[in-house]
């Protein structure tokens, strides 16, 4: 997954998740430059949920936007590593990201969300 800081791509949204099966970076999470660790964690949870439902590799190009009024009312703590990843992201170099343009970006690993079929015991 690629995490990107870009003001222009998230206008009016808390974050944007872009999925493209044909892109070098299949999953891109776009955050505003002032995003909090909680917002980043919500973006990661959103992507993990979509991956669980639709697969780790997207079948088609998708863009998901979460607006402030769509925020979950349930408080969930940020991942313990979210603040460190954001700090690394804010110090990263600007690179060209398809569908975003030139922006600060880093790659992070997320576990596979493919459903595992259990074997019957007996």
What is the element string, with H for helices and E for strands? EEEHEHEE
Task: Report the uncertain regions.
Answer: none
| Overall form | globular
Strand content: 15-25%
**Based on DSSP secondary structure assignment, what is the total number of beta strands?**
6
Number of domains: 1
Helix content range of the residues, please? 10-25%
**Mind telling me the C-alpha Rg?**
15 Å
On the 0-100 scale, what is the average pLDDT? 86
Main sheet characteristics: 6 strands, mixed
The total of helices stands at 2
Major sheet: arrangement of strands: 4-2-3-1-6-5
Q: Structural class of the secondary structure composition? A: alpha+beta
Give the termini separation.
39 Å
Report what the structure shows:
By secondary structure, this protein is α+β, with helices and mostly antiparallel strands. It has one domain (2-107). It has 2 helices and 6 strands, in the order βββαβαββ. It has a 6-stranded mixed β-sheet with strand order 4-2-3-1-6-5. The longest helix is centred in the middle third of the chain and has 18 residues, at 37-54. The relative contact order is 0.26. The model has no long low-confidence stretch (mean pLDDT 86).
Structure in a nutshell:
With 122 residues, the chain is an alpha+beta fold.
Write the layout of secondary structure elements.
Layout: E1 2-5, E2 15-19, E3 27-31, H1 37-54, E4 62-66, H2 82-91, E5 94-97, E6 101-107
Parallel strand pairs: 1-3
Antiparallel strand pairs: 1-6, 2-3, 2-4, 5-6
């Amino acid at each position: 997954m690629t995490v990107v800081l870009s003001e222009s791509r998230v206008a009016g949204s808390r974050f944007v998740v872009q999925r493209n099966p044909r892109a070098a970076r299949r999953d891109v999470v776009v955050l505003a430059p002032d995003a909090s660790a909680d917002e980043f964690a919500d973006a990661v949870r959103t992507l993990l949920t979509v991956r669980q439902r639709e697969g780790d590799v997207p079948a088609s190009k998708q863009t998901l936007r979460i607006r402030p009024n769509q925020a979950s009312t349930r408080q969930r703590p940020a991942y313990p590593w979210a603040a460190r990843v954001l700090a690394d992201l804010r110090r990263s170099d600007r690179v060209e990201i398809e569908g975003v343009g030139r922006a600060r970006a880093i790659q992070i690993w997320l576990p596979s969300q493919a459903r595992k079929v259990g074997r019957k015991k007996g």
